[in-house]
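User: Reviewer 2 asked us to show a designed sequence for the structure in our supplementary figure. I'm pasting the structure tokens here. Could you produce the per-position amino acids so we can include them in the response letter?
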């Protein structure tokens, strides 16, 4: 149950994304007690930078073998490997996580995003062989840049170990941390965090040590097995062009 779904997959491989402040995955069936949120409503709220409640929610794409994009609060396990992966849709940070059921999960985060920046910054401040709980968040906020007030999401991935919450290694005003830059893309001003992410990833690549331990198994209710996330290929699991996008695709982040 790599993501905290209440399911057991017993050695299978799962694929997860980070979107809208949640762990998301594509599934063949809707988990028990989950309710639908219309994709149009979700996009409308995100474009308006509103708080979106996706607890026990799913979006029905109504296409393909895995039509349901399902949202979960967290993922727990130990990191076995990491990679900076480039594909036709951009660059991603991929973490391979082994959970207490023996399932392998691939957590994909857009590399040049606030999520990846926040996660890498926290991982730099902790022994990476520990068991982690990853909990994404997206909080509506208002910022002022060059005298102009802009609404945008404060995004990140909270990280917890058995000792408690992991804080970031670098504060935003740390002189060692490269600043973000305001640039224009197709005439529209947006924030570039390329230099900052490249710096953090270089630090992380040197800092990272994979875990060789298997997390202690946790008791699970037999009735929860029906919620199991089906095994998927990367193409099935991760959105491609024209599919459900994250809030970063609709709202430039000024911070």
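Assistant: Here is a per-position design you can include in the supplement:
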């Amino acid at each position: 149950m790599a993501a905290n779904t209440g399911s057991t997959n017993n050695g299978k491989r799962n694929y997860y994304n980070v979107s809208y402040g949640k762990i998301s995955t594509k599934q063949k069936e809707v988990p028990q007690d989950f309710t639908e949120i219309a994709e149009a409503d979700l996009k409308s709220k995100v474009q308006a930078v509103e708080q979106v409640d996706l607890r026990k929610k799913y979006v029905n794409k109504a296409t393909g073998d895995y039509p349901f994009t399902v949202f979960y609060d967290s993922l727990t396990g130990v990191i076995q490997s990491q990679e900076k992966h480039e594909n036709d849709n951009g660059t991603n940070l991929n973490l391979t996580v082994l959970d207490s059921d023996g399932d392998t999960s691939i957590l994909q985060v857009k590399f040049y995003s606030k999520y990846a920046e926040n996660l890498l910054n926290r991982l730099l401040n902790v022994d990476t062989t520990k068991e982690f709980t990853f909990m994404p968040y997206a909080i509506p906020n208002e910022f002022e840049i060059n005298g102009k007030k802009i609404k945008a999401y404060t995004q990140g991935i909270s990280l917890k170990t058995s000792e408690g919450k992991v804080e970031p290694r670098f504060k935003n005003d740390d002189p060692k941390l490269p600043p973000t830059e305001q640039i224009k893309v197709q005439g529209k001003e947006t924030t570039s965090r390329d230099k900052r992410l490249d710096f953090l990833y270089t630090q992380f690549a040197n800092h990272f040590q994979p875990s060789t331990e298997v997390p202690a198994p946790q008791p699970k209710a037999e009735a929860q097995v029906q919620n199991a996330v089906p095994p998927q290929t990367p193409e099935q699991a991760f959105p491609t062009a024209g599919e459900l996008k994250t809030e970063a695709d609709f709202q430039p982040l000024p911070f």
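For the response letter, you might also mention the following. The two ends are 34 Å apart (CA to CA). The CA atoms of residues 134 and 159 lie 5 Å apart.
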